[in-house]
Amino acid sequence: MDMLTYLSEIEYAATESINLMWKEVEEVARLESELKPLAQATERDYRQAEAIAMMDDDDDGISTLLHWDTYFGVDKNRHHKEEEVQAAAERVATHQKSVVLIAGSLLQYAKQGLSQVYGSPQHWPGWAAIGTQGFGNIILQSRNQTMHWDSRLSHSAFKIVSRKWRRRLIPSLTNFMCGL
């Protein structure tokens, strides 16, 4: 089988995986946006009460009033929604893992295609390097890391590739993006 045939055969699976990954990214953003308002409002109101308390002319107890208003108002609402907020935070974490797993499946498709067309990694073409790392090596090590992220192994080969890639590619990419 050649690479074009392989890509044609997996096009549906890869396309759906990419669509699902973007859906998960959007869900993470939506869930994170739900978590922020209550915490921000509570912090803002307590800061306001503290700032007024620091003033010398708080004879009327305005800071105490604001403190208790915050306590029985927005903070109490936040407290009652704590379980809901915790559940939302857990959903965010789950969806974030889902994005990583879907990206790993795309890397698996790439690795399988390379193996099916070229055989073992020793026989893969020597493509141009990305930074200092060959494309095939990046696919292989990234796939290994994403497929086995939960095994807590050292993945020293991935760490070496990742370290070299960050050190060499990221500055180049940053310079390129800043020049746009």
Topology:
Blueprint: H1 3-54, H2 62-72, H3 74-80, H4 82-118, E1 129-130, E2 133-134, H5 135-147, H6 156-178
Antiparallel strand pairs: 1-2
In short:
With 180 residues, the chain is mostly helical. The protein has helices at residues 3-54, 62-72, 74-80, 82-118, 135-147, 156-178; strands at residues 129-130, 133-134.
Provide tags for this entry.
single chain; 180 residues; mainly alpha; two-stranded antiparallel ribbon; 2 strands
How would you sum up this structure, described in words?
With 180 residues, this protein is mainly alpha-helical. The chain contains 6 helices and 2 strands; from the N terminus they run H-H-H-H-E-E-H-H. The protein has helices at 3-54, 62-72, 74-80, 82-118, 135-147, 156-178, and strands at residues 129-130, 133-134. A two-stranded antiparallel sheet has the order 1-2. Helix 1 (3-54) runs antiparallel to helix 2, helix 1 crosses helix 3 (74-80) and helix 2 (62-72) packs parallel to helix 3 (74-80). The longest helix has 52 residues, at 3-54. It starts with a helix and ends with a helix.
Radius of gyration, taken over Cα atoms and rounded to an integer in Å: 25 Å
Strand content: under 5%
Strand order of the largest sheet: 1-2
Structural class: mainly alpha
